Structures are given as C-alpha cells and as structure tokens.
Amino acid sequence: MKTLYTAEALASGEGRDGTARTNDGKLEVDLASPVELGGSGEGTNPEQLFAAGYAACFHSALRLVGRKERADLADSAVAAKVHLGQLPDGGFGLAVDLEIALPALDLGTAEDLVAKAHQVCPYSNATRGNITVDIKVLEFAA
Predict the structure, then answer these.
(1) pTM confidence score
(2) Average pLDDT value for the chain
C-alpha cells in the first residue's frame, strides 16, 4: 500500500475511561464507558468514534462513486451503528450496520452505487472478512 495520509492519536488515562487526542490537536475527547457496560456514559467511547469515522468514510466513497457515474446524490446520508459484543472465546468483537439514504435515486441504482462504494471505502476494505458489516439501502416513496 502506498501511504497517502497518516492519522495519529494518543489514548491515555484508564483506557475506555481516559482521554484521546490527535497529534494536531483537532480532536480531543474525554472517554467514558457507556452506561450499558457499567460506565458513567459521560464521555464518548471507541465504538462511537468508529461509527462516526465509518459513516463519514463510506459517505465519501459513495460520493466518489456517484460523481463518476453522474448520479444525483442530493440529500444522501450514511448512518453507522457499531455493536460491541462478547465472542464465544471470551474476547470481544464488533459488528456494523450501515444505513444509506439516497432519496434522489431509485432503489436499484442506489444499491448498485452502494455496492461499488463498499469496494472503495477504506473502512469497508479493512473490516471485510474480519467483522460482519450489514448494509441496508433505505427505500423512499417515488
């Protein structure tokens, strides 16, 4: 792989209950385990950060593919849900649900663009074969 960009971040403190910041200072967050995992929920958590990154990256890939095909991507959006769960061996794993809205396109065209974006998106390429990623294209009334 030819590196085009490198992001750098540092997590410190108590892991999920610490802080994280990027080396350029553009992102600095307090981390807190979610209430569902016995934490305070008073900060963000790694799954939320991953969800935001995946949604943004997939939307960018979708827009790239859409521009090449001259598709109308007006009001397009991508929502990501990242699930944290326990694996049978006692470790932890992730699963992702992506919901894509392409209201200006018919369902067939939208599904075709989403499939192509899934091949281009770096997050999709990184997760493929490692975690379950379920993709749903939302339907809109014509």
Answers:
(1) 0.94
(2) 95
